[in-house]
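We modelled the chain as a single entity of 558 amino acids. Its sequence is:
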Amino acid sequence: MTLKKLTLPEILEQSCTLYPDNLSLNFVVGGTRTYRQLHREVIALAHHLRGLGVVQGDKVAILSASMPNWGIAQFAIAALGAIAVPVLPGFSSVELQNILQHAEVKAIFISQLLVKTLEGVEAPLLRHRILINSFATIPAGCYSPEEIDKLVPDIDMTNDAPLPPVLVEEEDIASIIYTSGTTGLSKGVVLTHKNLVWNAQQSHTIQPVHERDRFLSILPMAHTFENTLGLLLPLIFGASVYYLDRVPTPKLLVPAMQKVRPTLMLSVPLIIEKIYKMQVVPALERAAWLRLVGRTTIGKRLLHRLAGRKLMKTFGGELVFFGIGGAKLDATVERFLREARFPYAIGYGLTETSPLVAGANASQTFFQGVGPILQGVSVRIDRPDEQGEGEILIKGPSVMRGYYRRPELDAEAFTEEGWFRSGDLGSLDALGRLTIRGRIKTMILGSSGENIYPEEIESIINNCRFVDESLVVEKSGRLVAMVHFNMEELEKHYRHLKSQAENYKTIAGEYLEELQQEIREYVNARVNNFSKLQLVVVQHEPFEKTPSMKIKRFLYNK
């Protein structure tokens, strides 16, 4: 479908006209909402917001886990020409207060489990709070779960009378998204309707989407990756999107995939890496005859192919595109996915680029790379070194307008020629395909001036057994790996020694030192000379993370 105007209201109008009886946004269990019903609910909710005094240009926040009502709220806000302020659920009350104040938010949609985060928050312009689960008004001072449970939906969701005309243009602001940077600085990315809708529509050139496609959404909709590619893209082409009503744990995810039989999914590396480490590897290790076959190169590929067939069945059997973005995929896991013929694809982008910059479909992937640049986007490598690596600069219709009320950051983010500085290091090959090396700010300069990329070392460490996550830092001129182990899995492995190892400290004393040495040797056998680890230390507590689940590196680089 070709949109007449690149705006969110135009998506709603055209799709609900072309695909009125198709299923739209629904929960996995019991969902029957069609595009026709979606349109009615959006218009009804927009009427309610208008009655509250929300007008064009006002800011309305959405703080909730992913659900059908999240999308309904976003389109209702857009229908009035108002501006959505999506907030990741992981933000603290202090960070939430800063966002609500800085963005001058007038109303907020918030989920039942997150209402408590509003307690004590001071936001002078915030006048209205709506429970997004049921579209009920939240009275002032109502925060406890018991009180929230008693709220009765009081918003008329049947009012489908035409809205008074509001002229929403492509260059109008659609969203202000506050990033949760690993450097500790949160800033509001200003994205226009054209930024978001153009990126969604253009992504269709990488992986076609059809009205019979089924998306299973498992990532936060407050992130542009899921919002643009997991909501706007399927809605443009009349596809169906399904959501879980709870956190997507493996226990809930498997039956959901069996029921929905998704054709497309979006994920981050952590999810598929956990599936590989916790399910695929143990299954292969349990089968003695398979281990014997897998000793040869051909046997190993056959083994992975068989495992891939089983994995596809786990995902429902009809998956054609499993998009991975947000961080680098572990090399061992990717090698397995390739040999298993699992339809994975890698994408690269940023919140500031709405988000997709480059990517491939499952037939175009190349090992440890991203893929071609999205049609209509320009990428240049700034000051490349001898290997052709440098900072990735980006231009195109999906690049943000700037940072909200932060002109000093805009000056840093763009070159004089208008190229956006991504802060990422990468290179382009002879075919125009992009490969990412890491963040400029995280790169460590070796003693002789060598560039050391901690993300690449961490990817190797995280492939080790019993490792949950890791962080590579420089301390006193030494390369140090901080490793957080999965103690539950470690205890299971040493179950036969339970009588001798009754607690964490005993296990740590007897086995962790050995594991630290094994990890150091394993990594150093796989990296270049200047990237070898001098020390591996145990990180007893989980690393502190941003709301988008990235480690706050600045806290550990001291």
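As a brief sanity check on the tokenised model: The radius of gyration is 24 Å. Residues 457 and 527 are 8 Å apart (CA to CA).
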